[in-house]
Design a protein that fits this description.
Strand content: 35-45%
Radius of gyration: 16 Å
Number of domains: 1
Shape: globular
CATH topology: outer membrane lipoprotein receptor (LolB), chain A
Mean pLDDT: 77
Structural class: mainly beta
CATH architecture: Clam
Length: 198
């Protein structure tokens, strides 16, 4: 279950579709633009809408505070909260009364929240495409430790992270759309370390 939630909600974050790759996609100037943009995301908040592999739709709020911290809070009736404090990812499911943890380094979130975003260590960009109003980047876990793939979508004018599509190792697809990301105010201590906080 933890792996499923991490794949769904923390995907922000570079694992990829087994499609035909363009020549040297990692060298695309669009990849450089995406990295520069993501590294500027110091402390932001926004909303998300997720469509799971069965067609179920859920929504919630997210906060990112690089380096290392994130929080995904699902709206009722789900009420799932996922936090990352820089070392540990915690998934709290109040409905099932469960609390699960995993090392941040073992999740895709580590790529987005690292001090310096790198797409040449443990991650392989396999496709870069122009899309209506922006572009997409598809990447794969080069080490083969994470099965499946993810495509990140960016809007243009100005550049923004618009969402992602995840295909897991069994071919199940999860789609996440993001609302605008805006600067986040100062947050209380523990906001990113206790999944039940706030």
């Amino acid at each position: 279950m933890l792996a499923r939630f991490l794949a769904i909600a923390l995907a922000g974050l570079f694992i990829a579709h087994a499609a035909v790759a363009q020549p040297s996609p990692a060298a695309s100037p669009l990849v450089a633009r995406a990295i520069a943009y993501l590294e500027r995301l110091d402390a932001v908040k926004g909303t998300f809408e997720q469509t799971d592999p069965r067609g179920g739709v859920s929504s919630g709020a997210l906060w990112l505070a690089r380096p290392g911290r994130a929080r995904f809070q699902y709206d009722p009736p789900s009420d799932i909260v996922i936090t990352c404090d820089g070392r540990t990812v915690t998934v709290s499911n109040p409905r099932l009364n469960t609390l699960q943890r995993a090392p941040q380094s073992a999740t895709p979130l580590a790529v987005l929240l690292s001090d310096h975003i790198r797409l040449d260590r443990g991650v392989r960009v396999v496709r870069v495409d122009q899309t209506p109003g922006g572009f997409s980047i598809t990447a794969r876990d080069a080490r083969g430790l994470a099965q499946g793939d993810l495509t990140l979508y960016f809007g243009d004018g100005p550049i923004r992270l618009a969402g992602w599509v995840i295909r897991d190792g069994a071919g199940r697809v999860t789609r996440v759309s993001l609302g605008p990301l805006t600067p986040a105010p100062a947050l209380p201590p523990g906001f990113f370390s206790l999944a039940r906080a706030g």
